UniProtKB/TrEMBL annotation:
Pfam family, one: Aldedh
Active site: E255
Keyword tags: Oxidoreductase
Protein name: NAD-dependent succinate-semialdehyde dehydrogenase
Residues spanning the signal sequence: none
Domain called Aldehyde dehydrogenase: residue spans: 20-477
Length: 485
C-alpha cells in the first residue's frame, strides 16, 4: 500500500474479542484503479463469525451495564482518533474502494461524525411515565439495549456504513459484530485498531473478514444469540436476509437500493440545480444509494439544463483517486462497469441518445465515462434500474402532476430531490414524493444529525439523528400496582 504514514492501521486479520484472529485461509484485496493487489488477509470464515458472536454475547452483560457517560467517553475518544488519522484512513479507503482522496477524507469525517453524535445521544436514552387508568397503579417505560447486533455492510462506504451502525449500537449499550464487504475490509479493520486504542472493551466491537458472504451472512442472520440484524446493500440481498432473520424473529433494519428522481422545474435556479446534480450524481462514480438516478426536467428548461450539465461534466477529471484533481474514480469492479454499459446500450436501442460519455474509459479496465443521456423515458432500463454508475438520464416532463407521477413510479423510496423557487410547489411536491428523504434545492442530504432511511422496497429503520437509537433499544413497560394506602 502506498501513502500511509502509520502502517499500524493496515491490518490483515479479523478483530474478535479484542484479539487479531489468525487463519490459514487467505484472500486478497485489489486497488480498483489498477487491479494491483494491495493486501492479503486471513479469511476468518464462519468459524470467525461464531467466535465473534460468542464474544459479543459474553461482553454484552458488562457493556450494557456501563454508564451512559462511560460509553459516551469511549465513543468520543474513538471519534477523536478517527479524525487524528483521517489522512491515513482516507488513503486506505481510496486504495481499496477507488473514490477520490478528497471524497475519502470526507467519508472519514462523515463516519466519525456518527461516533461524535451518538457519544452525545448515549446520554439521552430517555424513558417515560404514562398516566395509569387507575389510581393504585403507575406506568413507567424504560429503554434497554436489544443485545448483540450483527451487521453486513457494503463496499461503497467502507467506513461510514460501519460507523453509522456501530456508533448507535454501542451508545445504546449493545455489542456489535460486523462483516464488511470482501472488496473493502481494510477500512473496517483500521477502525477496529482505533476502537481498541480508544479503550472499547474486548468483545464489544468485532470485525470478521472473509469471502464467504453467504455462509457468514447465514450465521449472522440465523444465530439465536444475535438480537438485531442491520444491513446496507442491494434490495435483492436485503430481502433474502430479512427472510433468514425470520427464523429467530430478529429486529431488522435495512438500508437498500434507491432510484432517486432529481426534478428540475421551469422556475429553478439552473446553476444551483446543475451544481446539485453534479454532487448528487457523480460522487463516488455514481455508486451511492442516494445518487440521483433519473433527472426529470421540465420542458421549458430541458435544453438549457442539459447544456449547462454537459459543460460541468466535461470538467470532471477521471483517474486514480490518489492523483491530484481527480473527481471521478473507477467503478468497484469490471462487472459493475459492464452492468452500467448494458443499461446505457439497452436504452439507446430503445431511442435514447448519448449527449456525452456512454463508453468505458481509457483510464483503466474499471473506468466508465461520465455520461449524460437525453430523450430518455421513464420506462427505459436506465430509468427503471438502480444505475450505480456515473450516468445521468434526462427525462422531459410537462407539469408538476406528471413529474410527481413519474417520480413515484418505482418500487424504491429512498431519496428524491427537486429544484423550484415556488413555495407552494415546495410543500406540494415534498409531501407528494413517496420517499424517506427529500432534498429541496439541495443535492447533498446526508449528515449525522438527520434520519437516513427509506420507504417501500428501499428498506426500513432510520440511521443517524436521535431516531437512530430507536432501532437498538427495546421498550419495556413496568406496571407498578398496589399503591393505594
Ligand atoms: N444501498 C447501498 O448503499 C448499496 C446498494 N447496492 C446495490 O446493489 C448492487 C449490487 O452490488 P453488490 O455489491 O453486489 O451488493 P450486495 O447487496 O450483493 O452486497 C452488499 C453486502 O452484502 C453482502 N452479501 C452479498 N450477498 C450476501 C448473502 N447472500 N448473504 C450475506 N451477505 C451478502 C456483500 O458481501 P460481499 O461483497 O463480500 O459478497 C456486501 O457486504 C449495486 O449495483 C447497487 O445497485 C450495493 C451496495 C450498496
Ligand atoms: O449512505 C449514505 O450515508 C450516503 O450514501 C452517503 S452520501 O452519498 O450521501 O455521502
Amino acid at each position: 500500500m502506498e501513502a500511509i504514514n502509520n502502517v499500524n492501521l493496515v491490518k490483515t486479520q479479523s478483530y474478535i474479542n479484542g484479539q487479531w484472529y489468525a487463519s490459514e485461509e487467505k484472500f486478497s484485496v485489489s486497488n480498483p484503479a489498477n487491479q494491483q493487489v494491495i493486501a492479503t488477509l486471513d479469511d476468518a470464515g464462519c468459524a470467525g463469525v461464531a467466535s465473534a458472536i460468542a464474544a459479543a454475547k459474553s461482553a454484552f452483560k458488562s457493556w450494557s451495564a456501563t454508564s451512559a457517560n462511560e460509553r459516551a467517553k469511549l465513543l468520543r475518544r474513538w471519534y477523536e482518533l478517527m479524525m487524528e488519522h483521517q489522512d491515513d484512513l482516507a488513503s486506505i479507503l481510496t486504495q481499496e474502494q477507488g473514490k477520490p482522496l478528497a471524497e475519502a477524507k470526507g467519508e472519514i469525517a462523515y463516519g466519525a461524525a456518527f461516533l461524535e453524535w451518538f457519544a452525545e445521544e448515549a446520554k439521552r436514552v430517555y424513558g417515560d411515565t404514562i398516566p395509569a387508568p387507575s389510581g393504585d397503579k403507575r406506568i413507567v417505560v424504560v429503554k434497554q439495549p436489544v443485545g448483540v447486533v450483527a451487521a453486513v455492510t457494503p463496499w461503497n462506504f467502507p467506513n461510514a456504513m460501519i460507523a453509522r451502525k456501530a456508533a448507535a449500537a454501542l451508545a445504546a449499550g449493545c455489542t456489535f459484530v460486523v462483516r464488511p464487504a470482501q472488496l473493502t475490509p481494510l477500512s473496517a479493520l483500521a477502525m477496529a485498531e482505533l476502537a481498541e486504542q480508544a479503550g472499547i472493551p474486548a468483545g464489544v466491537f468485532n470485525v470478521v473478514v472473509g469471502e464467504d458472504s453467504r455462509g457468514m451472512g447465514k450465521l449472522l442472520t440465523e444465530s439465536p444469540d444475535v438480537a438485531k440484524f442491520t444491513f446496507t446493500g442491494s434490495t435483492a440481498v436485503g430481502k433474502q436476509l430479512i427472510a433468514q432473520c425470520a427464523s429467530t424473529v430478529k429486529k431488522v433494519s435495512m438500508e437498500l437500493g434507491g432510484n432517486a428522481p432529481f426534478i428540475v422545474f421551469d422556475d429553478a435556479d439552473l446553476d444551483a440545480a446543475v451544481q446539485g446534480a453534479i454532487a448528487s450524481k457523480y460522487r463516488n462514480a455514481g455508486q451511492t444509494c442516494v445518487c440521483a438516478n433519473r433527472f426529470l426536467v421540465q420542458k421549458g428548461v430541458y435544453q438549457a439544463f442539459s447544456e449547462k450539465l454537459a459543460k460541468a461534466v466535461a470538467e470532471l477529471k477521471m483517474g486514480d483517486g490518489l492523483a491530484e484533481g481527480v473527481a471521478i474514480g473507477p467503478m468497484i469492479s469490471e462487472q459493475a462497469k459492464h452492468d452500467v454499459d448494458k443499461l446505457v446500450k439497452a436504452s439507446v436501442e430503445q431511442g435514447a441518445s448519448v449527449l456525452c460519455g456512454g463508453e468505458a474509459d481509457a483510464a483503466g479496465s474499471q473506468f466508465y465515462q461520465a455520461t449524460i443521456m437525453t430523450g430518455v423515458t421513464n420506462d427505459m432500463p436506465i430509468a427503471k434500474n438502480e444505475i450505480f454508475g456515473p450516468v445521468a438520464p434526462l427525462i422531459m416532463f410537462d407539469d408538476e402532476q406528471q413529474a410527481l407521477a413519474m417520480a413515484n413510479d418505482t418500487e424504491y423510496g429512498l431519496a428524491a430531490y427537486f429544484y423550484t423557487r415556488d413555495i407552494g410547489r415546495v410543500w406540494r411536491v415534498a409531501e407528494g414524493l413517496e420517499y424517506g428523504m427529500v432534498g429541496i434545492n439541495e443535492g447533498i442530504i446526508s449528515n449525522a444529525a438527520a434520519p437516513f432511511g427509506g420507504v417501500k422496497q428501499s428498506g426500513n429503520g432510520r440511521e443517524g439523528s436521535h431516531y437512530g437509537l430507536d432501532d437498538y433499544t427495546e421498550i419495556k413497560y413496568l406496571c407498578m400496582g398496589g399503591l393505594s394506602a
